[in-house]
Amino acid sequence: MVKIALFGYAQSGKTALFRRLTGKKEDVYDPFKPNAGVGIYKDCNIARIAEIQKARKMVYPEFEIYDFKGFPEGEGFPANYYRNLFDKDIIICVVGNFSPEAHPEKEAMSLLMELAFYDTERIQKMLDKEQGASGGAAKGQAEVFKKGLVLLEKEKMLNELCAEDKKLIQGTELVTVKSVLIYINGDAKPFNLSFPFSASRNEGGSFDAEGFYEAVIKSLSLITFYTIKGEIVQGWIIPSRSTARQAAGKVHKDIEKGFIKAAALHLKDLIEIGSWHTAKNMGVLKFLGPNSEINDCDVIEFFFS
Ligand SMILES: Nc1nc2c(ncn2[C@@H]2O[C@H](COP(=O)(O)OP(=O)(O)O)[C@@H](O)[C@H]2O)c(=O)[nH]1
Ligand SMILES: [Mg+2]
Q1: How far is CA 72 from CA 35, 113, 189, 212, in A?
Q2: Residue 16 C-alpha to ligand 1 middle, in angstroms?
Q3: The whole model's pTM is what?
Q4: Which domains does the chain have, with CATH numbers?
Q5: Which of 12, 67, 84, 107, when mutated, tests ligand 1's pocket best, judged by the most ligand atoms within 8 Å of its CB?
Q6: Cα–Cα distances in Å, from 201 out to 36, 96, 189, 197, 219?
Q7: Roughly how many angstroms between the first and final C-alpha of the chain, as a whole number?
Q8: Which of 107, 73, 281 is nearest to 191 (CA)?
Q9: pLDDT tens digits, residue range 142-191?
Q10: Which atom of ligand 1 is nearest to the CA of 201?
């Protein structure tokens, strides 16, 4: 499951956001024990498919949400705090914008800087050690670290490195290699962020959880496919460019193992045609072998032995 970390200064509304996403009420104050919960992405396509298929049950994709205690803006985060982020897939920088004192642009930039400073120091430490020494850069990593420093100096993040470079520095405890999004909590002050993939919340309007997850999905280059099994319509989230066999593995390991083929139809074609059964009879389903790629919003039926 995708792991989402909520990162931000104290009083920025992280726990409020956590509660909206997970429906949980609890709060903890230990900086190394987050509030952890599951957030449900109520993808409206699932209800559309259920409606046309007259299916009774809808199963939505889920995300793991981690809400960490924040530190005050002037104080910053202790270095060991960042280990909270190592095993997460995406960092959401939560920025308070619900009081007259809010300064969302400044706070957002300052949070991004905290992440970048941490990585800069961490890389310098690894480069300072002798190559190959414990805690130092391994073979092939030093070059990537140097490229990384150039990015960080230009106020960019390590997630702009190419996939190959990112792979080389996997497990080196850097944080901006991950996807980073900004979430503006409230609309007390106007803001103009050049940072990509930002999501925001309108204080007057209702909370847009779907918009939140959509931003996460886009930022992580994920796609959704759907299955219809009897009364159950279910949505599944996988990396883009996943193969039919990999998608099968998401549903069940047995389907992956015994994979024969998959039948696929894009959601909008299914809606136009009116039912999976009709589409099948019309012969418009596309058959996929194990290595064919799944497209976003494909409705899939797996055949397996
Ligand atoms: N008006 C308003 N108050 C909020 C909002 N989000 C959080 N707060 C308040 O701001 C304070 C800090 O919120 P909290 O979620 O605990 O912040 P955290 O320290 O980042 O976890 C609490 O008193 C909340 O009630 C919001 O969207 N609107
Ligand atoms: Mg909190």
Answers
A1: 18, 15, 20, 25
A2: 6
A3: 0.93
A4: 3-31+68-219 (3.40.50), 223-304 (3.10.20.30)
A5: 12
A6: 21, 10, 12, 14, 18
A7: 27
A8: 107
A9: 999 999 999 999 999 999 999 999 999 999 999 999 999 999 999 888 88
A10: 27
